[in-house]
Amino acid sequence: MNLTELAKACLLAYNTNMAKNYGTADVSKQFAVTGPMETKLKAALLDSVEFLSMITMMDVDQIKGQVVKVGNYSIATGRKKDGRFNTTNGVDGHDYELTETDSCASVPWATLAVWANAGSTNQFMQLMSQNATQRFALDMLRVGFNGTSIAENSDPVTNPMGEDVNKGWHKIVKEKAADQIMVDDVYFDPDGAGDYKTLDAIVTELKNTLIHKTLRSDPRLVVLVGSDLTAAAQTHMMNQADKPSEKVAAQQMDKNIGGLRAYTPPFFPGKRIVVTLLSNLHLYTQKGTRSRKSENVEDRKQHEDKYWRMEGYAVEEFEGYAAIDEANMHIGPRP
Hints:
Blueprint: H1 5-22, E1 31-32, H2 35-48, E2 56-60, E3 64-66, E4 95-97, E5 99-108, H3 109-118, H4 121-146, H5 169-176, E6 181-182, E7 186-188, H6 199-210, E8 221-225, H7 227-240, H8 244-252, E9 256-257, E10 260-263, E11 273-277, E12 281-286, E13 291-297, E14 302-315, E15 321-324, E16 329-331
Parallel strand pairs: 2-12, 6-15, 7-16, 8-10
Antiparallel strand pairs: 1-13, 3-4, 5-14, 8-11, 9-10, 11-15, 12-14, 13-14
């Protein structure tokens, strides 16, 4: 189909508004995102996906450098004879490295026509803006949880979860602090024929054996748990429940596991389980590298919003990250 006249008018309004906001003459040509708009773009990404606002997102000056310390997890209280007691956030740490990252949120002409007919021009522009920022933000998490390599040419067909876009948090820990991840086969069976009958038992063991002792009672510690694991646990509890109150408890069990607040983030592997602090997961963008482009591509019959930057992932404290790799997690009885 062709792009409708109404959709053309709405696209023109969208691009004109974008050009005004970013202070550029033509958004169909790549332009740098700097100054206040760099801050606004980051804020829009955070607003579009709640989980991003919970981790540490930061702009850095260099492509390579030392991981930025955002917290000191040791004690901050004491005394010193003939002086004042103090602790500092040290600069010693491990390295991060950013890589070229290119996102493109495309909308087919057919969808543009539907959006243009669905409401006002302002509603159309809002749909376009939300589509772009949300897809960019979700991909940041998709790669963060699933990325294992940095390919010269990424292949979204072979690697639909962004496995070859960048090295995510889990891969970084596996490479630099392998002891923090359990790689022996683990069998989770709510019926009692596996290594663990409950998720609480798994979380408790991860926390008490792999998390540093100074962090085990930290109230910021949480558990990230895959949907396959919570589904198996909930199904078992629902099947065993014979009272309404027990069914409600089964529905809520994934909110708190092993005494820790539980989350199942977008695109988190279904059989992975991680105990960590959310602030421990870092996502860096090199300051001044963000650029955008918004254009109607007739050859592909779609509009494309593009976002280029230098970006990468880091983990602040390896001993504040404990996990069981999804490749070693099995749901069911031990054979």
